[in-house]
Specification:
The protein has helices at residues 2-14, 75-85; strands spanning 17-22, 28-34, 39-53, 59-71, 93-102, 109-121, 124-137, 140-149, 170-183. By secondary structure, the chain is mainly beta.
């Protein structure tokens, strides 16, 4: 009887509406892009975010990244990225607005989900799906999401030159931590 009761509690928690408030100081977006000489790694700062989702998979909210915070470790490359590709002064925020979560987020332990939504970069919005591993422990949640940004296809400039050919997609790994509230 106790096992049945415990399973009923867990099932109701897994079917609960939830709000994930992101702690920007504990979150970041890492990027990876290849060129003919090497692979470039860097980060962007997450400025804020909150995601709401329910058992049916409906999601809302927003994750915001500071476009001007992009740092690859090389000042000249970063200057080109901000001036010529991202145009960070003009388009200061990169956002993701979730619309649907496919898969269940367990109230304890690890879950694998797909998050559909709208990704806005360089002033244009695009549909995007991110694969995510979500780990819940008490009132804390950590999300590690991965997706690819086809920045050239989306109208941004490719920084390739005569000697260095840069890939036309960027791999993004979002690591977001924060507080989760389960509402029944």
């Amino acid at each position: 009887m106790k096992i049945f009761f415990l399973l009923a509690i867990l099932a109701s928690a897994a079917g609960a509406q939830a709000v994930f408030d992101i702690d920007a100081s504990q979150s970041r977006a890492a990027f990876t892009i290849g060129d003919t000489l090497h692979t470039v790694h860097g980060t962007f700062r997450v400025t804020r975010g909150s995601i709401h989702f329910d058992p049916s998979g409906v999601a809302s909210g927003e994750i915001v990244v500071d476009a001007a915070s992009g740092d690859s470790g090389t000042a000249a490359r970063d200057k080109r990225m901000h001036q010529n590709i991202l145009e960070s002064k003009k388009f200061s925020e990169i956002t993701f607005v979730p619309t649907h979560v496919r898969g269940a987020v367990n109230p304890a332990g690890e879950s694998k989900v797909e998050i559909d939504g709208t990704f806005t970069i360089h002033g244009a919005s695009h549909p995007l799906t991110a694969s995510a591993v979500v780990t819940a422990s008490g009132d804390r949640l950590q999300t590690k999401a991965h997706f690819v940004v086809p920045y050239v296809l989306w109208g941004m400039k490719n920084p390739s030159n005569l000697f260095v050919k840069v890939g036309d997609t960027v791999e993004i790994d979002l690591d977001a931590s924060g507080h989760i509230t389960w509402a029944h």
